[in-house]
Specification:
By secondary structure, the chain is of the alpha/beta class. The protein contains 8 helices and 12 strands. Helix 1 links the parallel strand 1 and strand 2.
């Protein structure tokens, strides 16, 4: 029995076939969908990762991603024929965790998938927090924010907020090290587990922006995650 099940939502049959053959050889179960509507119908709690084309007839991949995010924080990799950086950022803003621009090599896709699955399922919850609430072990508490490190849950004012894996990983790392300045390079290589390139800066910026929108009262004037110009980002130790 396969350890992981991957949903591939792609209208190009040849690409689906290539993914099916490659990942089948790696002992992954593949669930296929030829368009966005079918992709949403076939998505379930059994899916461990989604490979999602952006440009499809009917419902776009961006809309599919938004709908999946209402139900799950499962890792999502976008496939896009557009090479413009702005298109990639739109995909990340919609809730994607990573993207590949067509044409891509299947070995590169396999590497991205394995890295995301490893971060999401293998490393998830394995790190021991350096700072815990003495009255409530297993939690990191700063101001109105609380992280349950046992279940990877984040709470704001006692209400649970849903964070995709990348946002959660960045928040956890910064809350465990309040006051420390993290460069975009450090954040990217630690969270994405990949070498940093100049374009990676935009990826980090988008995820920081999305994170601020969920935890800050005024994302334009953040209290928790501040920008240290020319250096990176810092989590402020608010008590």
């Amino acid at each position: 029995m396969s350890e992981y099940t991957i949903l591939v939502v792609e209208d190009n049959e040849e690409i689906r076939e290539g993914i099916r053959i490659l990942f089948g050889g790696e002992d992954y179960d593949i669930v296929e969908a030829a368009d966005g509507e079918e992709g949403l119908r076939r998505f379930s709690e059994d899916i461990d990762l989604v490979i999602l084309d952006i440009m499809m007839p009917g419902i776009s991949g961006l809309k599919v991603c938004e709908e999946i995010r209402k139900r799950s924080n499962v890792p999502i990799i976008f496939l896009t024929a557009k090479a413009q950086e702005s298109d990639k950022l739109i995909g990340l803003m919609a809730g994607g965790d990573d993207y590949l621009t067509k044409p891509f090599t299947y070995s590169e896709l396999l590497g991205r998938v394995k890295a995301l699955l490893r971060r999401y399922y293998v490393y998830k919850g394995k790190e021991e927090p350096e700072i815990e609430d003495e009255k409530d072990p297993g939690y990191i508490v700063k101001g109105r924010l609380k992280i349950n490190t046992s279940y990877n849950e984040v709470y704001l004012d006692g209400s649970k907020i849903d964070l995709p894996e990348m946002e959660y990983s960045m928040l956890l790392m910064m809350m465990k090290n309040p006051g420390r300045i993290f460069s975009t390079k450090t954040l990217y290589e630690a969270v994405w587990n990949e070498p940093y390139f100049y374009v990676s800066n935009n990826t980090v910026t988008v995820h920081i922006r999305k994170l601020r929108m969920k935890i800050e009262d005024d994302p334009q004037n953040p209290k928790y995650i501040s920008t240290v110009w020319g250096k990176g980002y810092r989590f402020n130790a608010i008590e």
